[in-house]
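Task: sequence design from structure.
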């Protein structure tokens, strides 16, 4: 078997550019490793569904134990480009020299999964059935995971390697997310000649923004407007302005209430200035909440403690592929990977955290 080094593999992975829907080179790296270790794997049709250049990679490893099967998942894409990355290792910490993001989210998870697969034959099948999945297009809406068909895996448990919490951390709850798009429709007019004939859509949007409850609404709910665009020219009263954003909540009831509230505020604001508001909302993913006494959570806590790490349970504010796994009937949690400041040029990860996470995964597999 061709030798494998976890740190070297991580450093190789982060140098391969793999934006969402453009993970082909990263996927090729993973598949070449699997082939060199004589693993059989399959690819689904995610590329056709999401119009990308790569599929999800799924590795089934048959075991001999009758315990629930275990599924491990990480994603191959990065939120922004790592092209031309110049990384450094200082005092055991890997970081980018601020020219790009590091890409530890989630190349660290992918590298650790490869490390586990490399070492797995040493267990001589003394484990339950295992599945390792490398997904695509996670960063733009969990698109790869939404394409997965895992009917044959029902009854198993899932572990997603994808959060900046310390190694040993367990995320057992994550919110639902609703995407919203509000289009304000008014009437254009020349701002210097006949402004009276215009119906300013920007005023409608501004009034809406001043009345929307944004930020942290309560302990379970947040909301944000992240994009504003429209208008034609500085001397034309804008006839169309668009707001795009999201609402998240651990309570589906609260989420639905906020969607209705946002719609009502937008329509009222548009009406005040003689215009209209077209409101569109779309459920991106559903929340999950596995109680502390759930068998999966308890099983993982014991494995973390055997690994000699501090085991803590967290409720997340963000979504991950674990939301989709839970939504499809596979109880799943998210495991702390240990990277810091993801999605920024200050992103970093400790070398020891790569090795520590691999150790945790092995203790999970060994029960």
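Answer:
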């Amino acid at each position: 078997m061709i030798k494998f080094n976890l740190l070297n593999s991580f450093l190789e992975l982060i140098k391969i550019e793999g934006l969402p829907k453009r993970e082909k080179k990263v996927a090729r790296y993973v598949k070449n490793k699997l082939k060199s270790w004589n693993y059989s794997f399959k690819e689904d049709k995610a590329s056709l569904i999401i119009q990308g250049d790569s599929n999800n990679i799924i590795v089934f490893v048959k075991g001999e134990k009758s315990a629930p099967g275990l599924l491990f998942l990480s994603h191959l894409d990065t939120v922004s480009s790592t092209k031309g990355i110049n990384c450094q290792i200082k005092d055991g910490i890997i970081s980018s020299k601020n020219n790009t993001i590091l890409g530890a989210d989630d190349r660290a998870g992918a590298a650790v999964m490869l490390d586990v697969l490399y070492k797995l034959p040493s267990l001589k099948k003394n484990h339950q059935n295992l599945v390792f999945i490398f997904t695509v297009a996670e960063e733009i809406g969990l698109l790869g995971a939404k394409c997965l068909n895992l009917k044959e895996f029902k009854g198993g448990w899932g572990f997603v390697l994808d959060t900046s919490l310390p190694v040993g951390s367990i995320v057992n709850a994550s919110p639902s997310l609703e995407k919203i798009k509000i289009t304000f429709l008014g009437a254009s007019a020349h701002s210097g000649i006949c402004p009276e004939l215009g119906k300013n859509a920007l005023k409608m949007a501004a009034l809406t923004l001043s009345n929307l409850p944004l930020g942290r609404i309560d302990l379970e709910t947040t909301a944000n407007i992240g994009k504003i665009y429209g208008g034609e020219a500085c001397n034309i009263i804008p006839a169309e302005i668009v707001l795009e954003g999201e609402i998240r909540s651990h309570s589906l009831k609260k989420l639905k209430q906020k969607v209705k509230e946002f719609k009502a505020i937008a329509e009222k604001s548009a009406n005040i200035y003689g215009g209209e508001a077209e409101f569109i909302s779309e459920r991106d993913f559903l929340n999950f909440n596995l109680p502390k006494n759930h068998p999966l959570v308890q099983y993982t806590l014991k494995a973390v403690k055997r690994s000699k790490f501090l085991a803590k349970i967290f409720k997340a504010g963000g979504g991950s592929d674990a939301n989709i796994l839970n939504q499809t009937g596979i109880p799943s949690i998210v495991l702390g990977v240990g990277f810091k400041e993801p999605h920024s040029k200050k992103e970093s990860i400790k070398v020891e955290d790569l090795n520590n996470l691999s150790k945790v995964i092995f203790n999970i597999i060994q029960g």
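The chain is about 30% helix and 25% strand.
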